[in-house]
Design brief:
The complex is a heterodimer of chains A (703) and B (186).
Chain A lengths: L16 H6 L14 E7 L5 E7 L1 H5 L3 E6 L21 E2 L5 E7 L2 H9 L2 E6 L18 E2 L3 E2 L1 E4 L2 H6 L3 E9 L11 E7 L2 E6 L4 H11 L7 E4 L15 H13 L3 E4 L5 H4 L6 E9 L5 E12 L21 E10 L13 H19 L3 H7 L17 H12 L12 E2 L2 E13 L6 E6 L5 E4 L9 H13 L6 E4 L16 H22 L9 E6 L13 E13 L5 E11 L6 H20 L5 E2 L4 E2 L17 E6 L18 H4 L1 H13 L10 H7 L7
Parallel strand pairs in A: 1-14, 12-13, 16-17, 21-22, 25-28
Antiparallel strand pairs in A: 1-5, 2-4, 2-6, 3-5, 7-8, 9-17, 10-15, 11-12, 11-14, 15-16, 18-19, 19-24, 20-21, 20-23, 24-25, 26-27
Helix pairs in contact in A: 8-15, 11-12, 13-15
Chain B lengths: L16 E8 L2 E8 L4 H8 L18 E4 L2 E4 L12 E3 L13 H8 L9 H16 L21 H7 L10 H11 L2
Parallel strand pairs in B: 1-5
Antiparallel strand pairs in B: 1-2, 3-4, 3-5
Helix pairs in contact in B: 2-5
Chain lengths: 703, 186
């Protein structure tokens, strides 16, 4: 391997690739230790109330069943500061799908049959699961997810909007969405005396260790959480989820290693979802297209047990210059499952609304939507007044327009027909904040000339092992193949979770610092290294998480071409193109895959993915992969991702911004705007399924 | 530690269990299987072949795809007791002996055709099945209806996408998977 392969940015191949393509990579449910048994949860069939009685007699009589845990006999947990994890602790049912029993059996088949044999009587109460704009329970939260203020206001937005020369006042709806990683949430737990070892499908084993230690009243050094290979998460495995608590409880009770795999249909209620958001966006502009007022008001839901507020109005605080602005969130607690993180929480639904509204404004002004965005570039971050550490949105828009062939586009909205198809193209911008968490790492030089880097990073498909080896090799100044990375185990130096597009920056910073120290130590050392080599460590607490004087965000531009079938109402994406400005790209191969993956999920958000809270039953109607349609091969055509290299000294030693989420952010709006360009019809509710599209087309157009 | 009861289910055939023989990756196995067991769980739990993945357990995602008598199938939908004498190939059995990779496994590495890797064994087995189907002249939804029946169907990108649409990938590696499959089309 040549030295050039060590350079940051090189397309290094995934280090665990061979294990993944040969099927030897083991995921959380696949650690088959002797004596292991299986557990199957029983979940609540009412949306609000309590379990009056639970009869486990028949279940316990069925062959292979070892025990049934219920709130009457389950181990008592300490408080872990997360109400979604307090499972089997009392009879209350806060939402449909809440775990009320766990059947442990010798085999999967026996566990499932046992779960079906558990008889439950409920004390049902009236429930309310329906989010409306005018819900009397709505309130403005102090903070939205991410610690952002619930409400911000500058100037006099109402008056400025009322007196604006050109106005857009539009309501948009994004339905509940489900993460649905391909690997369902799973854990295998085993107790050895007072020591707990768990293989968990998690985005961050350090945090899961802390949670389990708190729940089971153990010192953290008596808990080991392993997350070696993780089959995706997209936020839904960001913190401990109920399955790992159930597995640890069952293992403690039975004295056997226990695996809990959540059946796919249980995921929507148990692992978090993207909360539905109702948006009202008002844009006021002068005749030249300069924004004078920007108001983004969001109403969303949370559960009765936990306040989670999708921060969908936050990107409007970053995107465009406007002297008058209001960005506010209202949240309604309902008898629904607890929402949580799903890829780009806040940005994804918020930018669908804002970027659709910008497209509407461009139409109202008769301006090109690329130029409208460029005309409203702010000099500083509008909400904070801070200078941007780097902002190349204009370059992304220009480069994307050039690559996409935007200049050839008919500037007028449709209908643009091509036989029974209407064809159009659209653009939208994207933004995602730079988030960095403190982490620790060690680097060791071995006497044989190789290096070992240890950090409890998690590879949920991002290629963390690979890019961290590149960071290390670069800092050490050695070829990539001399560096080994150890990740995915809470016994390694503590590190932050794979979330908020923060992983590579956070872990990489610690790795870079440890390797830089090691390199300095090696420079002072003469002669052969003694066993076990020379080690350096780093802890970035206080530096990585220090406040910055700069507003730090990644930006991007999305372009889409669609064809709308006037016979079926089906929207097909023909082309997707994204251009990103996200600092230095550290591995061009895995980065491209992440960008394309985010865009693909955005395509799903635009066209196929949507969940419904059933008012009568209080349940998500689309709870499995037959009803909740994630994009399939046939939905995904040519998808291109490009980037503009940014030299930003205000980020981290690698100069990188996160890339895991920005790909989804503007995609849905770009597709929706393309559908408007194709049809002349503005659809303001996602997803753009054939029923919705066909019934929205004017009768002269639908064939 | 407490244990309430224990009912081991392993043992000789009875009303709920039968003995079957499966040839898996070239090697015969005689097993006593629970009549409720599907092939996927027999592979994963009894034979410790965890390459075939459980994504949905309902035939909706394709992660469990294996080859049964040379044809691709969702192993989560096949009762094992009905497969006596069957010849099963899983992702673990695709390469040659030792370290050798199947050309499609190599192409997946070359094209970065996966991220989390959980759908990957199913994608690979499904693609191998799809290539065989096309070679045998099986049409798909996007095959020209006017094309003559019988001769092999040429696989362009639309054909590959259509034929692999039963295998979901939430990481969104689809374009790279299609390129990897193109790489091994004879």
């Amino acid at each position: 391997m040549s030295d050039t392969d060590t350079a940051l940015g090189a397309p290094a191949e995934r280090r665990e690739g061979r294990e993944k393509v040969t099927g030897t990579a083991r995921y959380a449910a696949e650690h088959t230790v002797p004596g292991r048994v299986h557990a199957w949860p029983v979940t609540a069939a009412i949306a609000c109330g309590a379990v009056r009685a639970i009869d486990t007699t028949e279940a316990l009589r069925s062959a292979g069943v070892i025990t049934v845990l219920t709130h009457e006999n389950a181990p008592r947990l300490a408080d872990a500061d997360d109400p979604t994890l307090a499972v089997l602790q009392n009879s209350r049912v806060p939402h449909r799908g809440w775990p009320i029993a766990l059947v442990v059996a010798e085999t999967l088949e026996a566990a499932r049959a046992g779960a079906a044999a558990v008889r439950v009587e409920y004390e049902a109460q009236d429930h309310d699961v329906t989010l409306t704009d005018s819900h009397p329970g709505a309130y403005v939260p102090e903070e939205a997810n991410g610690g952002y203020p619930g409400h911000r206001e500058r100037g006099a937005p109402e008056g400025a909007f009322a007196s604006a020369a050109v106005r857009v006042d539009a309501a948009y709806r994004v339905p509940p969405l489900h993460n649905h990683p391909m690997e369902p949430h799973a854990a295998t737990a085993q107790w050895d005396g007072h020591r707990l070892v768990v293989h968990d499908s998690s985005q961050g084993a350090t945090a899961v260790r802390a949670t389990l230690a708190a729940l089971f009243r153990l010192p953290e050094d008596q808990v080991t959480v392993v997350a070696e290979h993780v089959g995706g998460g997209f936020g839904s495995k960001g913190t401990a989820r109920p399955h790992v608590v159930l597995a640890a409880m069952a293992a403690r009770r039975t004295g056997r290693p226990v695996t809990v795999v959540l059946p796919r249909r249980f995921l929507p209620a148990l692992v978090g979802h993207r909360a539905p958001t109702l948006h009202r966006v008002r844009l006021g502009a002068d005749e030249q297209g300069s924004l004078t007022a920007l108001l983004h008001e969001v109403t969303t839901h949370t559960s009765r047990i936990k306040e989670f507020v999708e921060q969908a109005a936050v990107p409007a605080r970053v995107m465009y210059a406007s002297p008058h602005s209001r960005t506010t969130h209202r949240v309604v607690p309902l008898d629904v499952p607890s929402p949580s993180w799903m890829r780009a929480p806040g940005e994804a639904p918020g930018m669908f609304a804002l970027e659709s509204a910008m497209d509407e404004l461009a139409v109202a002004l008769g301006t090109d939507p690329v130029e409208l965005r460029i005309a409203n570039e702010p000099d500083t971050e509008p909400d904070s007044g801070k200078p941007f550490s780097s902002r190349h949105l204009v370059e992304c828009l220009r480069e994307g327009a050039r690559r996409f062939g935007w200049a050839h586009r008919d500037p007028h909205p449709g209908p643009h027909s091509s036989g029974p198809l209407l064809v159009g193209s659209g653009v939208a911008a994207a933004v995602y904040p730079v988030l960095i968490q403190p982490s620790t790492a060690t680097a060791r030089a071995l006497p044989n000339g190789n290096f070992t880097v240890r950090v409890n990073a998690t590879d949920i498909g991002t290629g963390a092992r690979t890019v961290l080896a590149q960071v290390a090799a670069d800092a050490l100044g050695v070829p990539l193949d001399r560096v080994r990375t150890e990740i995915g185990n809470s016994d390694l130096p503590s590190a932050s979770l794979a979330g908020g597009s923060s992983g590579t920056a956070s872990w990489g910073w610690a790795v870079h610092e440890a390797c830089t120290r090691l390199r300095a130590g090696l420079a002072e050392h003469t002669g052969q290294l003694p066993e076990p080599g020379l080690t350096a460590s780093a802890d970035t607490a206080g530096t990585a998480d220090a406040d910055s004087d700069y507003a730090r965000h990644a930006f991007g531009a999305h372009f889409a071409e669609v064809a709308v079938d006037t016979v079926t109402g089906e929207v097909r994406v023909r082309r997707l193109l994204g251009v990103y400005a996200a600092g230095h790209i550290l591995n061009s191969r895995t980065a491209r895959s992440q960008f394309i993956g985010g865009m693909t999920m955005g395509l799903g958000m635009a066209l196929t993915e949507g969940s419904t809270m059933d008012a009568a039953f209080g349940d998500f109607t689309e709870s499995d992969l037959a009803a909740y349609h994630v994009p399939v091969h046939a939905d995904v055509p040519a998808v291109e991702a490009h980037w503009i290299d940014e030299d930003d000294p205000h980020l981290n030693p690698m100069g990188s911004k996160g890339i895991g989420e920005i790909g989804i952010v503007g995609t849905a709006a770009a597709i929706g705007n393309a559908v408007h360009h194709a049809t002349g019809v503005r659809y303001r509710e996602l997803p753009l399924t054939p029923d919705r599209v066909l019934t929205g087309l004017p009768s002269f157009m639908a064939r | 530690m407490e244990t309430d009861t224990a009912h081991p289910t392993t043992g000789p055939p009875d009303h709920h269990h039968s003995e079957i023989t499966l040839r898996v990756n070239g090697k015969p196995h005689t097993l006593t299987v629970d009549h409720r067991s599907v092939l996927l769980d027999v592979l994963r739990e009894d034979l410790d072949l965890t390459g075939a993945k459980k994504g949905c357990d309902h035939g909706q995602c394709g992660a469990c795809t294996v080859l049964v008598d040379g044809r691709r199938a969702n192993s989560c939908l096949l009762p094992a007791v009905a497969l006596d004498g069957g010849d099963i190939t899983t992702v673990e059995g695709l390469g040659g002996d030792g370290e050798e990779l199947h050309p499609l496994q190599r192409a997946f590495l070359d094209r970065d055709a996966f991220q989390c890797g959980y759908c990957t064994p199913g994608q690979i087995c499904s693609a191998i099945g799809a290539l065989a189907e096309a070679a045998a002249g099986h049409p798909s939804h996007v095959t020209d209806p006017g094309a003559p029946a019988g001769p092999p169907v040429a696989l362009d990108r639309a054909e590959i996408r259509e034929r692999l649409s039963g295998n979901l990938c939430r990481c969104g590696a689809y374009p790279n998977i299609v390129e990897a499959v193109e790489d091994v089309i004879p």
